[in-house]
Amino acid sequence: MVNNTLAPRQRPVGVTIIAILQAIGGVLEILGGIFLLNVSTVAAIIPIVLGIIALVLAWGLWTLKPWAFWVTVVLEAINLISGIISLVTGNVSAAAVIQTIIALAVLIYLFADRNVRAAFRT
Q: What is the pTM of this model?
């Protein structure tokens, strides 16, 4: 008897770390939005929505959904470009430098590690 099912995929450790950090960021965004409810309902909506999106992305990374790989690539590319623009325009801050380094590291990891691409089957 031939087993035609695909072997279960292993989640690379780096993807696990990115998913956990994304989930933590999502929870913090939601909490920040909840605290903003006392100030302005309209101002609270944006971080709450972004937090929910971050949690969905974290779940997608955790469960190795191919769309989560590509959404992460796009978001990290935006973060990288934003960080570079901040650095080039003279807005050098620790946050801009850290944002740029993390975005670059995540992008390199996602594309350089064959196990990541295989896990997401992209």
A: 0.83
